[in-house]
Amino acid sequence: xEVETQDFYLSAFLRLSGLEIIDLKNYGQRCxxxxxxxxxxxELKKKYYWHEAHVDPMAYKQAIRKLKGxxxxx
Length: 74
Prior knowledge:
Elements: E1 2-5, H1 8-16, E2 23-27, E3 30-36, H2 39-49, H3 57-72
Antiparallel strand pairs: 1-3, 2-3
Helix pairs in contact: 1-3
């Protein structure tokens, strides 16, 4: 099963945590990021929204830049 999110910063966190974006969909002026909806996705999403995630700030910054690059090329 797949799950879509328009949360840019969650998507950057998920990519940094090793999840792959399986598709990008246009959503008006925005993008929807599509991930596999599995146990790992749900656990990472929970950690992100419950303020339990810990990442290297510079690695997160780099993940954000890469994600911006993906969305700009659409």
